[in-house]
Design brief:
By secondary structure, the protein is an alpha/beta fold. The protein has 11 helices and 13 strands.
Amino acid sequence: MENPTREDVKEFYSEAADKPQEDLCCPTSYPQQNIDHIPQEVLDRFYGCGSPIINAEIQIGENILDLGSGAGIDCFIASKLVGNTGTVIGVDMTDNMLHVANESKILVSDNLGYSNVEFRKGYLEDIPVTNKSIDLVTSNCVINLSQDKTKVFSDIWRILKNKGRLVISDIVSETETTEDIRKNKQLWGQCLAGALTETGFLTSLEKTGFYGIEVLKKDFWKNIENINFYSITVRAFKYQKSSKCDFQGHRAVYNGPFKVIIDDEGHVFSRNQVVEICTDTLEKLKSSPYLGSFTILQPNGDKTELPCCTTENNSNGSCC
């Protein structure tokens, strides 16, 4: 028996669009104020495994993309959070899900008093969005459905703006899954058979180039054939390195609370110790998620404190 294909997944979720599937429904619940503008038809088809939209610290005016948007619940929550100056794009490959989402979009727009959501048909590996146009990419339990997760992560990188971020909820396994699990169409559709290990998931983000990777939440999901599966929500940032990194005399002091830390590029920062940094590292330390953890010493000896989240420095909504 071959591993389930994209068409198998599409058929599985077409049926789940036509009739809500209790086995797929997520035990996660959203605060009422985030969903009171959303039709029940959409809420009944919430098949995620976490709350990436709620954990993303969305700001007014951001451009957001939700992958595997399904009936549209996360897009509609984001629509309210970004306001009428922001935009939300949902991408899904299933016609039946897109139909439910587009039908519901009319009522959501009426309830909010504005329309800022668009749904597009497409695939995770080839996202129908232009390069460097998105502030935040979210997905809720869909990356495990892809046969080529490396391509998914690289395409997310492509569409994110520099210093943009992803917040993804997905199912991961504690150890590698067995061949019997991987070939089970039902378990694939339930987001289990195609799951990466937790280490593999985080490593894939690192290899793509993402930095500041953080597991925001982790919960036990299920045990199948003595393999533990977990729901995790992960945040990571894109930083486009410059072609030339200069040393101009800037230095950084790690403020704590840990005795020593190592960043994604191997720089070692001991607490309260001065470390010379290049211009690339300087820009990273001035941005989320490192903002507030370092004091920057200028070439002339002046000290620049980098405070944690304020209205002025929290433009991308995710510092600290």
